[in-house]
Design brief:
The protein is of the alpha/beta class and 126 residues long. It has helices at residues 15-27, 45-48, 71-79, 96-104, 109-124; strands spanning 4-8, 32-36, 57-60, 84-85. It has a 4-stranded parallel β-sheet with strand order 1-2-3-4. Helix 1 (15-27) links the parallel strand 1 and strand 2.
Length: 126
Amino acid sequence: MRQRVGIESLAGAVPHRYLDIADLARACPEAQIVVLEAIGVESSVFATDPSLANARVYFEMSRMATVLQRTIPTLIARLGAHRLMFGTGMPLKIPGPALLKLELLDAPADVKAQVASGNIERLLRW
């Protein structure tokens, strides 16, 4: 049976959190890990360590920046669009800002579709 592991990272910008998640990914290479409310990924071990290039770790984008800091486009370039997942942070947040980030994302339509729903559908095998 495939193991699914979800990790909510409310303090995602703290580098040791990503080191812990990287250790988990290495210890359980078959696990699929989704980091919710991920921030700071672009400067984390996942963006700098080539040994984690094939880790089954995915990052939900509700707290990431797409326009000013260009975090989402940077992560697409570094990790690939297949590692990012759309999320809104609901029910604690309203969905408008997350939808706007997706709309303003400077990426081809197929990449937006992959991030918007394709990645989670693939992960859940829908």
